[in-house]
Write a structure and sequence with these properties.
This is ParA family protein. Pfam families: AAA_31. The protein has 210 residues and is mostly helical. The chain folds into 2 domains: 78 residues, no CATH class; 123 residues, no CATH class. Helix content is 46%, strand content 8%. A 3-stranded parallel beta sheet has the order 1-2-3. Helix 9 packs across helix 10. The longest helix is centred in the middle third of the chain and has 20 residues. The two termini are 25 Å apart.
Length: 210
């Protein structure tokens, strides 16, 4: 949120328990003003570290959380660099059967590896890639995508065996403001998506992301 550049504290911007179903989850919401964040950050000294300085200033409030998850847009801009600099674990989503998404992930990894050098950030922070929008059906496009993936050994080697499948259960659970597990339980249903998410969590634990 753009308010942090204006000096607001973590306590001022954190919304406590916006979903009563999950009292242990707080959020920092955003709005259209986020589009101006890059411009405001660019005027700051050591501009790639603005968020890191804010984090350390608010460490007493933020260290209470087990995990802080940031959802980034595909844009590799100054806002993204601030969040990436502060992150200890980065998961790169790749759209299934989308070669442009695959090439974008490779370009991101190249750019961030270069910028990390200049920012003197030495940790191995890109922990995994994951297929999203996965569809089991095989097509000519999926065959071409699989062939193309072989050219990117580094992305392929860190790719999770689990994936996020394209299905209505995920969308419906989001619209219901419930986890997949709780949504299925509420509707007396079972679905393999729940097991896939659980497998993904276990893989992330093995990679020390969780």
């Amino acid at each position: 949120t753009i308010d942090i550049v204006d000096g607001l504290s973590a306590e001022d911007v954190i919304v406590k328990c916006p979903n009563q179903n999950y009292p242990n989850i707080d959020i920092i919401p955003s709005d259209i003003g986020l589009a101006m964040l890059d411009e405001k950050i660019s005027l700051q000294p050591a501009r790639e570290k603005v968020l890191a300085r804010w984090y350390m200033k608010n460490i007493d409030a933020l260290e209470k959380y087990d995990y802080i998850i940031c959802d980034l847009s595909p844009s590799y801009n100054l806002t993204a660099k601030n969040i990436l600099y502060l992150s200890d674990s980065i998961i790169v989503p790749i759209m299934d059967k989308n070669i442009s998404s695959l090439r974008g992930a490779a370009l991101f990894k190249e750019l961030w590896s270069r910028d990390k050098f200049y920012l003197e950030k030495e940790d191995d922070d890109i922990k995994a890639t994951i297929l999203v929008g996965y569809e089991k059906q095989k097509t000519q496009v999926s065959d071409l995508f699989d062939q193309y993936l072989q050219k990117f050994d580094d992305l392929k080697d860190m790719m999770l065996n689990s994936f996020i499948r394209r299905n209505t259960f995920v969308e419906k659970s989001l619209l219901s403001k419930l986890s997949i597990s709780d949504y299925l339980k509420k509707n007396n249903q079972t679905h393999f998506s729940k097991e896939e998410v659980e497998n993904m969590i276990e893989e992330l634990k093995e990679k020390d992301v969780l």
